[in-house]
Each structure stands twice: as structure tokens, then as C-alpha cells.
Amino acid sequence: MASVIVYLLYKVTRRLLTVPSVLLRRGAAKDAELLVLRHENAVLRGELAGPVRYEVADRFWFAALSGLIPRRHWLKIFPVTPGTLLAWHRRFIAAKWDYTARRGTSRPPTPATVKTLVLRLARENSTWGHRRIQGELARLGYRIAASTVWEILHAAGIDPAPRRSGPTWREFLTAQAEGIIAADFCHIDTALGRRLYALAFLEHGTRRLHITGVTACPTRDWAVQQARNLTADLGIRIEVLRFLLRDRDGKYGEAFDAVFQAEEMEILKSAPRAPRMNAHCERIIGSIRREALDHVLIMNEAHARHVLASYERHYNEHRPHQARNQLPPGVHEKPAAAPGLSTGKVLRTRILGGLINEYRHAAMTFRAAHDRGGLPGREERVRAGPV
């Protein structure tokens, strides 16, 4: 190790001793030496197959000497471009003021699970800012600074401000479900190719379906009359409804909206060509087609009314709905468990000639008939045969 140090000192000393000799030389000798060195440099560059990779010490030496030579001569003297020399100089200056290596130990990084939880709280609560999220994390036992929450949200492209954005359309419909009734037209093609139109309403909160009428000419006056019929049928239930959701079909008109506005309801119009904004009503129309209309040849308006009325009763009184915990819109409590009943006592009721089947226990069937004023008639007994 000592020999290496002595050798380095010798080389440095020798290099320093050559500086005065160069400075004291006469101009002609120095010029000749420069010409020789330049020629040798040109020959060596020509021998190289690719670019030269200079070490840090070489870069430092070139950058230091560049300050003694006019910039207009750099291209002829130095083996690199002027831009490279300037870049090296900027790096040396930047390294001088870089204290990264001198920093002590900082606070540990935030765990990935905490970051994921921060982003989840921001997505699920659109009105929460970074301080509100920090408070919720503290309640859950996570000790994290508000500034750290701010940085996590900012890095994910989420505005840390208390009010980032309004609720999405899905969030709005979910929050206001109890107060929304949606409307949409359903077209029906008869066996002879005539097109009919039915107007359907769906209560978001209860999933109750209302098919108010069928016509071949859905004028605005006809639509207004259907709106009046609906408000009369709803009775006191209309008091909980606050919004009517519909598309921008020209068959509605201002008079149609006025019927609901008179009941202190606000009209919500979906965007053009955006059926998903009225997804619940679009889905029920799809269910009507798949479960009934696609399997029946509709002959005329009267036939269409009969089919839709039968489906409406089935939909509201018997068909289970996942959104209501598998309960029909007209049922509010789950039926009591019936242990000990054999499968032979489960009866079937055929709707629309067996196109749709409903199943009940025999005791329930006779009780329902008794509530209507007597025992089941012949037709009902035939339809309610054992499975």
C-alpha cells in the first residue's frame, strides 16, 4: 500500500514539474508540439472502432482544462464535442452540492398495504380529503402523517383536496334509489309486422314494474295520459318519489314532464345514446323480451296488453330479485320455513300457457284462493297440478 502511495505522489509531482517547462518554452516549440499532438490524436481516433468511454478522472481533466481554452477551439482540440464538455462540467458542479450520501436515516417507507388502503378510502368516499382519510386511518390504528396521505394520493393521480369530484352516475342512482322511478318505451312487433309500443315504469327502490299501456301511435298526448294513470295508481307511494329518470325520446314532451313536476318530482334526462344511464329500465325491458315476448307471436294490441299484464303480475308478485334479497317487489318478508313438507305438495301455476311457471306449497295456494273469496276454480286446479 505504501509503494502505491509513493508511486502516485511521484507521478503527480512529475506532472506538476512539467507545467513550468511548458509555460517557459518559446512559442514556436510549443506550437510545433501542439501540431504533433493533434496529428497523433487524429491518427488514434481513426484507429478506434467505436466511441471512447472516458473515466471520471479523464472527464474531470478535460472539463478543468476547457476553462483555459477559448470555446471556438474546443472542437479542434478536445476529443469530444463542446456539448459533452459542458454536460460534464454541470455534473461536477451538481455533485459538489449533492448531499444525498451525507443524509442520515429517514423515516421508513409507508407499507404497501397502507397505501392500498389510502387509495381505497379515496375511491369509496369521493368527498374525503387527505386529512379526513388520515383521521379514518388513525381510528383503524394506523399512525400516518397527513402529508404522507397527500403524497400517496398525489402520486396516484388523485386530487388530495376535500372535494375531488362529484358522485358517479352509479353512486347517485344507488343513493337516490328509493326516490327514483324510471321510464322507457318498449317496442313490440306483431306476427304481421306491425310495430306496437308499450310504456314501462320501474321504481328503483322496490323494483315494482308498471306497464301503463300499449299503442301503435305513441303520441305525446298518449304519453301524458299514461303519466296521469301512473300517478293515480301510485297513490301515496308517489310521496317518496323525487326523480323521474328518462331518455331524450321526443315522445315524452314537456306536458309529460309537467305531470311529474306537479308532484314535486325532478326530471333527470340521460345523455344521448347512453342506455346505461337508465340501466335498470333497460334491463327490465330485456327481461320482458327474453322471458315473454320472444316466445309469443303477438297478434294485436289486445293480445300484447294481455301478455304484458300477465308478466307484470308475475314480476311484481312472484319473481325473485337479487336486489331485494330474492324477494318479489310486492313481498316485504321472507316466507316462514316449512319443514316436513314433501315435494309432492309443491304445486305449479302456469302463466301464459306454461311459458312462465310459478311454484307454491299447496297450503299457500288454497289460502290465496280463500283470500280471494272461495276455493280455486277448475281452471286454477288444472294449472296448479302437482310437479
Automatic annotation (TrEMBL):
InterPro entries in UniProt: Homeodomain-like_sf, Integrase_cat-core, RNaseH-like_sf, RNaseH_sf
Gene Ontology annotations of biological process type: DNA integration
Source organism, top-level taxon: Bacteria
Start and end residues of each Integrase catalytic domain: 163-336
Record-linked SUPFAM superfamilies: Homeodomain-like, Ribonuclease H-like
Pfam family, one: rve_3
GO molecular function, one term: nucleic acid binding
Xref: PROSITE patterns: INTEGRASE (PS50994)
Region (Disordered): 320-340
Protein name from the UniProt record: Integrase catalytic domain-containing protein
Organism: Streptomyces violaceusniger
